[in-house]
Amino acid sequence: MQEGLAGSERLKDNGLFFQWGERTHSLDERLLVCSDSVDVLQVKFHPGSIKDNHILLLTSDNTLRLYRVEGGEVFNLGAFLVGDKPVAKVPCSKITFLGALGEIAVDFDFGHPELSGNKTQEEIKNFENDNRNSSLIEIRNPLSKSNTNIIVHQPEKGMKKNDKTKEKDIYSNFNWPVYVLSGDFIISVVNISLHEGFKSELRGPLPMTPSSVIQCDKRACSIICLNSSPQVVCIGSTNGEILHGVVLPFEGDTMEKKDIDLSTFINRNNADREIYFFEAVDIELGLCTTSQQQECYSCPIFLYKDCSRCDRYFVTHSAGVHTISIGCMENLQKDLLENTNDIFSTSSTPEYLVCTKTTTTKSCNPVVGFSVYYNPNSIITLLANGSLLSLALMNTSALPKLEKLTLHSEKVVESPIKEVLKMPFDQYIHNLLKKAESHPIIKLSRNEEHSLKECHELIQKTAQIFQEKFKCHTKAREEIEKRAIALKMLKEYQLKELDNMNKERRSLQEKAESLAEKYEDIREKQEVLMKRCAKLVVMLSLKKEILSDAEQEYLVDLKNMRGKLDKCDSSIEKLITKKSCQETQMRNWKNQQQKKSTVISDTHTNTIKESLVNSSIRINKMVAEIKAVKKQLHLK
């Protein structure tokens, strides 16, 4: 397991081995520690790394640097420029002119993996056949709308030298686009391979529509790409505004329509995608305790994904922690299968989870560490005063869903029940409870002494939040009671309907039995009538003097059959006569044979006797000779 520890001037990678202890590797220590102009802005593990040992970091010189930690050594795989390299600094300051203008990259994130554009279908099939034993996952390319398989896991075994070429081919089959955000809301895309010697291609800036969402007085500070399809991008600014956009492919050559002049950017190519911003969400940077307008507070905000859900993410800043649920995510994913209208009709809902500052206080207790735990879903927050806060998250999607009641008769219930039945009841109650303001856990700084006025305002704000929350819970309780009464009345009505149906069933059964008896009687009468009709037809046919055509044909057939029968009778008589003659001849022949007798003469008899005597004498001699030989040979 690999862990990365990063600061503004140094990055360490801790490789944790359960049998050999801990090892720490400093990445590019000479550059990151000795240089005054290079700071670490963002560090992330590359999601396409098979062994989880590739680290990508963003530095303040507009450069992405890729490292691989393997065998106790750190390898620098390359540095990729994502913008102009800052040179000059503001006098008496460490801030560069590009940084002051917001032209320095401040954050990056990885998008969905995409298939390399130079791979043919035959090469893709060969790649899948060669990696049948590996763990493959089918992904969808949002730009080309095609599916492909990529490797997501392999056993951590030593790679042989002759397998380096094959490893390079595996890495080059798909790209992980890196979305790089600058302070002036310019987003670029760069594809970075995990293999050495790969030439990256920087595309951008990406066109953004509508362009009115980007204002000059805003400064971007964070970006994340949610695990959704199509790709949803969230961009945070220092004034507490978060933009939600969906990545769309270009349809044709639309670069001229977007009025983007690439001549002002160095080493950039035309963008192959654009971002459509459909929503802007404002979050509170500090709990508002008064109705008076306070000075605008700004601070960097940081965005974190929720891997258990694609429609939720977390926001941390100096004033606390927020969670934001994107309401249109379900409609956006359904639009891939069916064309739906009003995709973005449902707005997102921010919720204040942890508050470390109010609008009236000057000092704050900023969040210095944040993590998400998934079993069960909860967040772990480390504050600047050293306190560790763990907060469980209620996931409504994990609750059992109530089945929607469907009634065939519209007269059963009145109109209020019909309105409730339009949506699931749990969702209806959830929407009622959502109307209340968020009630965060307050963790203010202990170093600042709060005045009585501030404490009083905080207590009033807390009481107001509880009142609104209590009203929402009261409303939800009333709706549940109404629902219970309506369901009880509906149950009583359905029980009555069941009784009526049972009575009707019994009456119908009795009617069916009586009808069955009547049917049997009618069938018997019908058979009797059929027999009588047949007799009448026969009697009528007998009384007719003129034969019908069928009867005449039948009469001709009978005559023909009579002639054939006569011929058969004559043939049979001839055969019987012939048989009697043959039997007489056989009896005569047998009598003649019995009269014949065979008599042997005396000469023949004497000759036969003499030959038999001679044969017996010879046999006796041979038996005596054989016994003598056995005695000589001592044989038994």
From TrEMBL:
Q: Subcellular location, in the record's words?
A: Nucleus, Nuclear pore complex
What GO CC annotations are associated with the protein?
nuclear pore
Keywords for the protein's UniProt record, in alphabetical order: Coiled coil, mRNA transport, Nuclear pore complex, Nucleus, Protein transport, Translocation, Transport
Residue spans making up a coiled coil are 491-532
Q: Which InterPro entries match?
A: Nucleoporin_Nup88 (IPR019321), NUP88/NUP82 (IPR037700)
Which biological process annotations from GO are given for this protein? mRNA transport; protein transport
The record's PANTHER family line, in alphabetical order, gives: NUCLEAR PORE COMPLEX PROTEIN NUP88, NUCLEOPORIN NUP84-RELATED
Q: What is this protein called?
A: Nuclear pore complex protein Nup88
Q: Which organism is it from?
A: Cryptolaemus montrouzieri
